[in-house]
Write a structure and sequence with these properties.
Creatine Kinase, Chain A, domain 2; 11 helices; 8-stranded antiparallel sheet; two-stranded antiparallel sheet; Transferase Creatine Kinase, Chain A, domain 1; 339 residues; binds D-arginine
Length: 339
């Protein structure tokens, strides 16, 4: 029997593991920054269709509320007790699967990071959000070479600085899950996007995590996009102490993203397999990949263009994730060609 604070129809993992005895032990606990259990599960309480239903307000949340985070994480990520996450962002060499771009329209890889000594987006207040933005922007401005670029703060959104193309860079306000988690507080204050003058790099500041480092290319050169984003994260790691947990790897606001905190995917047009979804689903599942709609999480597939990306974030390194994505896409393209 679990605690009845959640909606009756909710099936989220936070509800599943919040037994009365656990609630009794955790209900009056707070992390050093004052983050409470009720703040952590508010999104799961307000959104009946939550999958995990809990967010972290700071690094310490994962320890202070371990009685609920641990079982929920182990089940969501299928992560066995006693295992430790290992990170490996070393350079990779992979053949371009589709140099003529007959199938793969684009490759996008994002890595989330939070700064250890700042509250995470669900809990950070305006004063510290401002301090974080200042610290991050100064590090971004120090990037050299093809990562050199410019930061666009959302507060200048309506000024002449934001031409049409720049406005497209902006990320939207968080969804209802993120809103109930507190991630939208003071939006659009202290939010912004850094973009390198050359193609490869964008960095979202103060979205669902402090940093979302993104590399995007209209090509199938997965290795190049991966090497770019990892090099950018490595350069930034010399400026900050990223939130890291010995068992769970890199820590994020939403526990679904811990570990590598990396989502690596392609937009791929599969006209034949779109008519044979069972074959496509079997292929995707066999490589532990996931299909999203053309415009991302919870959207439709348009014109047979699928967003296919890695599913696993925890218990696999970044290097292994890209190897696996490459193998899976190679097999999918081979099957599409055969059809
Ligand atoms: N609140 C989460 C959303 C899951 C993953 N999406 C993220 N993190 N953007 C839930 O469904 O419980």
């Amino acid at each position: 029997m679990t605690i009845s604070v959640f909606p009756e129809k909710s099936k989220c993992l936070a509800k599943k593991y919040l037994f009365p005895a656990v609630y009794k032990l955790l209900e009056h606990k707070e992390t050093g920054s004052g983050f409470t259990l009720l703040k952590a599960i508010n999104s799961g309480i307000k959104n009946v269709d939550s999958s995990i239903g809990i967010y972290a307000g700071d690094s310490m949340s994962y320890n202070t509320f371990a009685l609920i985070f641990d079982p929920a994480i182990r089940e969501y990520h299928d992560f066995p007790e006693g295992k430790k996450h290992r990170s490996d962002i070393s350079r990779i060499e992979l053949a371009n699967l589709d140099p003529e771009k007959r199938y793969i329209r684009s490759t996008r890889i994002r890595i989330a990071r939070n700064l250890n000594n700042f509250d995470f987006p669900p809990h950070i207040n305006l004063l510290f959000r401002r301090k974080l933005e200042k610290k991050v922007v100064s590090a971004l401005k120090s990037l050299k070479g093809n990562f050199q670029g410019q930061y666009y703060s959302f507060k200048d959104y309506n000024s002449s600085k934001y031409s049409g193309s720049k406005k497209k860079l902006c990320f939207p306000k968080g969804d209802r899950f993120q809103d109930a988690a507190g991630i939208n507080s003071d939006f659009p204050e202290c939010r912004g996007v850094f973009k390198s003058f050359d193609k490869p790099l964008m960095v979202w500041v103060n979205e669902e995590d402090h940093l979302r480092v993104i590399s995007l290319r209209l090509s199938a050169d997965i290795a190049k996009v991966y090497n770019d984003v990892c090099m950018a994260v490595d350069k930034l790691s010399h400026h900050f102490d990223f939130a890291w947990h010995d068992t769970y790897g890199y820590l994020t606001s939403c526990p679904t993203n811990i570990g590598t905190s990396m989502r690596a995917g392609v937009h791929i047009q599969l006209k034949k397999l779109a008519q044979k979804r069972t074959i496509l689903n079997d292929l995707v599942n066999s490589y532990n990949l996931q299909i999203r709609g053309t415009k991302g999480e919870k959207t439709r597939v348009e014109n047979a263009v699928f967003d296919i990306s890695n599913l696993q974030r925890l218990g696999i390194s970044e290097y292994e994730t890209i190897q696996n994505l490459h193998k899976g896409l190679e097999s999918i393209i081979k099957t599409e060609k055969k059809l």
